[in-house]
Design brief:
Blueprint: E1 7-11, H1 17-27, E2 31-35, H2 46-49, E3 59-62, E4 65-68, H3 70-80, H4 95-117, H5 133-144, H6 157-171, H7 179-189, H8 192-211
Parallel strand pairs: 1-2
Antiparallel strand pairs: 1-3, 3-4
Helix pairs in contact: 1-3, 1-6, 1-8, 3-4, 4-6, 6-7
């Protein structure tokens, strides 16, 4: 298995898979889309459940490797194409913080946002995976305030992950539109890869809605 093996991205527009596609574009990776119409429920049908039993996107296949979970996909892809410069090397002092802030997305940020979205009382701080919402978000704000990216001047795959996350969470009012978050998300949204995929997503989403009779 080599980096010349084409990557299959299991995909649906305007979902978490959008960020994985933007990352593939940023990496210059060879890839194909396996498109699922989530409006028609294709992600819950048997063919895809053999790929990801949870019926979630994104997932990727690269040679014999099948990777699910958004955080794992970002780490895997950025490490697969180190020449793109989006991942710190193992001996880079940024490697530990890089992994920390990628893992933080799945372990703290998303659980906090789901509780907020569902209007659920969080668990007591001693049992909560994210302490409390304000503490979780405050840690992010402090890191991003060092800017312009998570680790200063050089963008990494972690910034693609977080830039996408802030774009959609601020859109739905789950994260307040603080200047540091707005500016950060805007930097990622202004990148050509983001612009290309956003346009393609709008077109694909419209096609899926029409096919599902919506």
């Amino acid at each position: 298995m080599t980096t010349t093996d084409r990557i299959t991205l299991y995909y649906s527009p305007q979902t978490r898979a959008t960020g994985a596609r933007v990352l593939l574009e940023e990496l210059g990776a060879p890839y194909d889309l396996y498109v699922l119409n989530m409006k028609a429920g294709e992600q819950r049908q048997g063919a895809y459940l053999t790929i990801n039993p949870l019926g979630k996107v994104p997932a990727i296949r690269h040679g014999e490797a099948l990777v699910t979970e958004q955080v794992a996909i970002y780490i895997y892809l950025a490490d697969l194409f180190p020449q793109a410069g989006l991942t710190p090397a193992l001996n880079d002092p940024r490697r530990g913080p890089y992994l920390r802030w990628i893992a933080y997305y799945g372990s703290s940020f998303e659980p906090a946002l789901i509780d907020k979205f569902m209007k659920r009382e969080p668990a007591p701080v001693s049992h909560s995976p994210y302490a409390d919402y304000d503490t979780m978000l405050g840690a992010l704000e402090s890191q991003l305030a060092k800017g312009p990216y998570l680790f200063g001047e050089q963008i990494t795959a972690a910034d693609i992950l977080w830039g996408m996350a802030f774009s959609w969470t601020m859109m739905f009012g789950l994260v307040p539109q603080k200047d540091v978050f707005v500016r950060y998300a805007g930097r990622i949204a202004a990148r050509p890869a983001f612009q290309r995929i956003s346009k393609a997503d709008d077109e694909m989403a419209a096609q899926h809605a029409a096919a599902a009779g919506m």
